[in-house]
Design a protein that fits this description.
The complex is a heterodimer.
Chain A: H1 2-16, H2 19-46, E1 50-51, E2 54-55, H3 56-73, H4 80-87, H5 90-94, H6 100-130, H7 139-164, H8 174-187, H9 199-206, H10 215-221, H11 228-257
Antiparallel strand pairs in A: 1-2
Chain B: H1 7-24, H2 26-53, E1 56-57, E2 60-61, H3 62-83, H4 89-95, H5 97-103, H6 108-115, H7 119-138, H8 145-176, H9 184-194, H10 203-212, H11 220-227, H12 243-264
Antiparallel strand pairs in B: 1-2
Helix pairs in contact in B: 1-6, 2-3, 2-7, 3-7, 3-8, 3-11, 8-9, 8-12
Classes of the chains: A mainly alpha, B mainly alpha.
């Protein structure tokens, strides 16, 4: 455990060096928050005041919360591990006496730990000042929302890890990565709430881990899911997806490492 | 001077090499074209989901919204194919490559733009133009010669507007350097805003995304003019007829901004 903690601290400190990039990212999240809050409120207004369980106030909260968490959850392209596989640097990671998946997971949680506050607070503050947000006042949603957010980061990592392992077989990961980000952004609840998707698409979404990455933590933090039963169900679904995605990563990794040939060095 | 090759033939040689290089790896090229087409599909999915739930958005019905969407995608994808490589400016500045480009007897902007004239990105433009042709068949435009002229001019003007946005974003890098991603808020934010009726935006945002970042000029305002619809507060419908002028003006301002940025640039003798 102390070793994994060191990886997490490393991830945290590494991202804490990119100050200007963090400010720029928070700025972009804020501008997109303004646009998405505008579009989603216009949709709710057109639908007659409520749509899929959202009224104007709760859809504004949804729009800003989703912008606040996506940097930490990282629903974008990530090819760092694939790059190390391509260059062969992965051998360094594999030769450490720590499990490969755990060390990268710890580093990614550390990254999320740094990124969360500076990337979440500016959009939330601007959202509260401009559109006005309707955040829960009890501590429960925040407590369970935070647990859900940690699960979301870990699920997102496990899926990105799994996809990056394809670099053991493929030379160029840009195509699959683009496709992953596109499907993810549509089904995770970033573009529009998952609850607005047509039935068939919501069924498709439910069969993927994507709603567990953004919709689940936002539902808990925003107070959309309030009863203990619903909260437990949301967290349980996330836990199942986390276990499945981590296990899939381990299975593929075991097959991949059999292909690795270390040529001295 | 007669024996010196013209700038045009130099560009042609550079461009030819770039285009051949991109298609050399056919598998990767096909994957990237597919990825770019899927990206257009995702943007369309958002419209599909919204109109699955409501009948009108920002004063426009599905048909008119599709016209806004496709006009904005044609403009954006043409501009992204031409000037999307302006994203590279921070890297060029940091790595000192910019100085190499400055030494050559060709325009700096011309070189950066042709450095990555991305064929795969034009795949999107071709798709968008095809969808536009389909959308025009279902949208009830009361055609007049003036409207036909506006329709032909709009994709060109839209491409000019987004190209101007990319160039300004590149020029700002000479001041930003470290916070390069901040301009994404305006280029990709502008692209996102352009796909919707500007009437969905609250007034201050609507004015900003029309007259500072000219997103509304790309698809929404021409759609108002083509369909003869009234505009929301702050955006009178007659502005739609000024889209070509707006494109030219934006491009002119962007070139001035670029010159100011390059003048400010101080090389490190790389």
């Amino acid at each position: 455990m102390p070793v994994l903690w060191a990886f997490a601290v490393g991830g945290f400190r590494r991202f804490s060096r990119y100050r200007a990039a963090t400010v720029a990212g928070a700025f972009t999240n804020t501008v997109f928050g303004l646009l998405r809050a505008s579009v989603t409120t216009a949709v709710v207004a057109s639908a007659g005041g409520t749509l899929g369980g959202y009224d104007t106030a709760s859809v504004i909260t949804y729009a800003w919360l989703s912008q606040a968490v996506i940097a930490a959850v990282h629903v974008f392209a990530w090819t760092e591990l694939a790059e190390r596989i391509r260059t062969g640097d992965i051998v360094t990671d594999l030769s450490r006496p720590v499990d490969l998946q755990w060390q990268w997971l710890a580093a990614d949680l550390g990254r999320a730990g740094f990124v969360l506050i500076p990337r979440a607070l500016p959009p939330l503050a601007v959202g509260a000042l401009t559109f006005g947000m309707n955040l829960p006042t009890a501590p429960g949603p925040y407590l369970f929302g935070l647990v859900s957010l940690v699960l979301a980061v870990a699920i997102s990592f496990a899926c990105r890890f799994l996809l990056n392992l394809a670099a053991f077989w493929l030379l160029d990961l840009r195509g699959p990565m683009t496709l992953y980000v596109i499907v993810n952004n549509l089904l995770c609840g970033l573009l529009l709430p998952v609850w607005w998707l047509p039935d068939w698409l919501r069924t498709v979404a439910a069969a993927t881990p994507f709603p567990s990455m953004v919709q689940a933590p936002v539902d808990l933090l925003g107070g959309r899911v309030t009863t203990p039963g619903q909260m437990a169900q949301t967290l349980a679904v996330q836990a199942v997806w986390l276990a499945l995605s981590l296990l899939a990563g381990r299975w593929v990794l075991a097959r991949a490492t059999r292909r690795v040939v270390i040529q001295g060095g | 001077m007669a024996d010196r090759p013209s700038a045009w033939s130099a560009y042609r040689a550079v461009l030819g090499a770039r285009l051949r290089a991109q298609t050399a790896y056919r598998g990767s090229f096909a994957m990237e074209v597919a990825g770019n087409l899927a990206n257009s599909g995702l943007e369309f999915a958002e419209i599909y989901v919204i109109f699955h739930n409501v009948r009108a958005l920002g004063g426009l019905d599905l048909k008119a919204s599709l016209l806004v969407f496709t006009l904005s995608r044609v403009g954006f994808s043409l501009a992204d194919g031409m000037a999307g490589s302006m994203d590279e400016v921070p890297r060029l500045v940091r790595s000192g490559t910019l100085e190499v480009l400055m030494l050559r007897p060709l325009s700096l902007l011309g070189q950066i733009v042709t450095a990555d004239l991305a064929l795969r990105r034009f795949g999107r433009a071709v798709l968008a133009l095809g969808v536009l042709a389909v959308v025009l068949r279902i949208v009830p435009v009361p055609w007049t010669p003036a409207r036909v002229a506006l329709l032909v001019a709009t994709p060109v003007a839209g491409a000019a507007l987004f190209t101007a946005l990319f160039i300004v974003a590149g020029a700002v890098q000479f001041w930003l350097v470290d916070g390069a991603e901040a301009t994404n808020a305006f280029t990709y934010g502008g692209s996102y805003a352009a796909t919707y009726s500007a009437a969905v935006l609250p007034l201050p945002l609507r004015v900003f995304f029309s007259f500072v970042v000219p997103a509304a000029f790309v698809g929404y305002l021409p759609t108002l003019a083509l369909l003869g619809l009234p505009g929301p507060a702050g955006l009178p419908a007659w502005l739609g007829w000024w889209v070509p002028a707006a494109g030219a003006a934006a491009l002119g301002l962007a070139l001035l901004a670029w010159r100011a940025g390059v003048r400010r640039y101080t090389g490190a003798g790389g």
